[in-house]
Amino acid sequence: MPGHESDMENKPDWQPRYPGSGRMEGKVAIVTGADSGIGRATAVLFAREGAKVAIAYLCEHDDANKTRELCEAEGADVMLSAGDLGDQKHCEGLVEAVMDRFGRIDSLIQIAGEQHPDKEVGDITPEQLQRTFQTNIYSMFYMAQAVRPHLKEGATIVNCTSVTMYKGAPILLDYSATKGAITAFTRSLSENLVEDGIRVNAVAPGPIWSPLNPFGGQPPENIPDFGEDTPMGRPGQPNEVAPAFLFLACEDSSYMSGQVLHPNGGIIVNG
């Protein structure tokens, strides 16, 4: 980990499914984890809808440059930023660079994450526990803190939680715990910012075919049947999740804040 989408034989579907309608025209969006998977699909969809896009990623330069090319093919102005989002100083530098380049920030889309399967709770090392929380939830705090002074009325934050927060995952104990924290953070930050006209929501994907899973996020023996335990009997594709992020980022969802959308293949969850 991290995995490279360019190394996958069965490539995820990132392509937007419909023509753009200008729903993000003139807006600037930061999309974390945008080098591949759900992040790539979301960045390209935002580009098609007229946004300028800042692609934040760790170190997968080949994937990130491919996403940049795909966004530019949609006519978008794009910038790349590589580095560890679990580092507060890096997050501050990223936001400063976006402001220098684009002069505004309208949407913060937080998708970057990592997961490590462990069959026993005792197998989770202190280092892994710290790293998973640092990547998945500390980064969201750091980015929210960094963008807050630049967000104006009408701005949006959309966080990526998970179906595991609602139904549990016996081999993803630390990952699921971070997703619970993300959902609570989303709801609380929504209450904190709503009076200023800033909306905060989240998306809770089910099993999605992206580099996260085949490159260490699932045991190798689980990959052939990955996602088949959903009611739809298959994993989702990134371009089946990206529209949920778009909806929550644009004015289509103007009366929604503190909510979670569930593109999860038909799994029934509460809330």
TrEMBL record:
GO molecular function, one term: oxidoreductase activity, acting on CH-OH group of donors
UniProt key word Ribonucleoprotein: no
Region (Disordered), start-end ranges: 1-22
Annotated transmembrane regions: none
Keywords in alphabetical order: Oxidoreductase
InterPro entries with a match to the protein in the record: NAD(P)-bd_dom_sf, Sc_DH/Rdtase_CS, SDR_fam
PROSITE patterns named in the record: ADH_SHORT (PS00061)
Biased composition (Basic and acidic residues): 1-14
Cross-referenced Pfam families: adh_short_C2
Keyword Oxidoreductase recorded: yes
Similarity-based family: Belongs to the short-chain dehydrogenases/reductases (SDR) family.
Name of the protein in question: SDR family oxidoreductase
Protein source organism: Aurantiacibacter spongiae
Organism phylogeny: Bacteria, Pseudomonadati, Pseudomonadota, Alphaproteobacteria, Sphingomonadales
